[in-house]
Amino acid sequence: MLRIGLLTSGGDCQALNATMRGIVKTVLNNAKEKVEIYGFEDGYQGLIYGRYRKMEWADFSGVLTKGGTILGTSRTPFKMLDTPEADGVEKVPAMVANYRKLKLDCLFMLGGNGSTKTANRLRQEGLNVIALPKTIDNDTWGTDMTFGFPSAIDVATRCIDDIHTTASSHGRVFVIEIMGHKVGWIPLYAGVAGGADVILIPEIPYDMDNVVAAIERREEKGGRFAIVVVAEGAISREEAAMKKKAYKAKVAARVKPSVAYDIAEEIAARTGREVRVAVPGHTQRGGAPDAQDRIFATQCGVEAARACLEGQFGFMVAQRAGKMVRVPLEDVAGKLKYVDPDSDLVREAKLLGISFGDE
Ligand SMILES: Nc1ncnc2c1ncn2[C@@H]1O[C@H](COP(=O)(O)OP(=O)(O)O)[C@@H](O)[C@H]1O
Ligand SMILES: O=P(O)(O)OC[C@H]1O[C@](O)(COP(=O)(O)O)[C@@H](O)[C@@H]1O
Ligand SMILES: [Mg+2]
């Protein structure tokens, strides 16, 4: 008998079900023994409280194109892992006990950075864990890509495309806020795909003088409108020079809903142009996975299942230079993958004339 557990943790994305389908189909198709499948509800919460569903082949049929997660998800912050739940339950011992009670041979954890830290902790506690790199943000260290990222780029790009027509009709400057608090992968990729004029990401602090100059240069060339893509975590040079605590306090004290509104106000004041803000928000995580996402999700699922059948645990499946690989959890835990400001795509975007506000 082979007993496997599955859970999805952290912010959801479009390709979670596609990934779980990849795992389950591969295990059922290739296991030499009978297989029992347990799906934990709402991320690590289900493992802590023993909330699970016994699942069958049929549960994973028809979910390839279904966004979200059939298991539900939640955020269980790693830094709170050793703080008991409100009802006194100790999280780590409870998770270990439930894993043992079900006599699991392996736990598949679909999650991002924080969730991977918890997975590593469970590995240290002696559980057989395999992590799969989920997040629209693409900020998981150790893999060139995460599932969720391709679909998020598509949604964000469509938003930029749609804003173009109205921006052009009215001759307006639009500030479009794209997800990414610490990293700028989606704003960078969607910004290039959507033909943005300015892209501001956390990895490249901006100077408003440069942003204003870029908008004015475009106007001088006859551009009636301008599209400024900003990451949720876009940061100015002055802010980047601040102490982390002071910057956090500044963000917490913001009166406007988010950074895009502050930037829009400053652009309007300094250019005299009519400026509007668009925020696609959680639509970037919603809807069906696109074709590229489905392929990568399937590859991750198959590779994770293959490892389980080989009896290999304690790593995250990843893709490097087009090859599926297994990266030890201890190497992944606690690291973020940032956009390299000197990367080819940033350089090419700059040569094309896109401003990142740094020069
Ligand atoms: N007048 C317009 N109305 C609607 N969309 C436009 C308009 N001009 C450009 N776009 C769209 O903007 C994106 C970037 O196009 P680009 O060639 O960079 O435009 P521009 O020459 O104005 O900078 C493309 O998706 C393009 O289809
Ligand atoms: O789900 P919330 O709490 O609204 O968080 C929104 C944030 O989650 C993300 O979608 C990413 O979530 P993960 O890091 O869990 O993958 C960000 O891009 C976004 O800024
Ligand atoms: Mg993230």
From TrEMBL:
Residues 3-307 form the Phosphofructokinase domain. Substrate binds at residues 135-137, 172, 179-181, 232, 276, 282-285. Signal peptide: none annotated. The active site is at residue 137. The record marks 114 as: Important for substrate specificity. Transmembrane segments: none annotated. Gene3D superfamilies: 3.40.50.450, Phosphofructokinase domain. It is an enzyme of class 2 (transferase). Its cofactor is Mg(2+). Catalyzes the phosphorylation of D-fructose 6-phosphate to fructose 1,6-bisphosphate by ATP, the first committing step of glycolysis. Belongs to the phosphofructokinase type A (PFKA) family. Mixed-substrate PFK group III subfamily. This is ATP-dependent 6-phosphofructokinase.
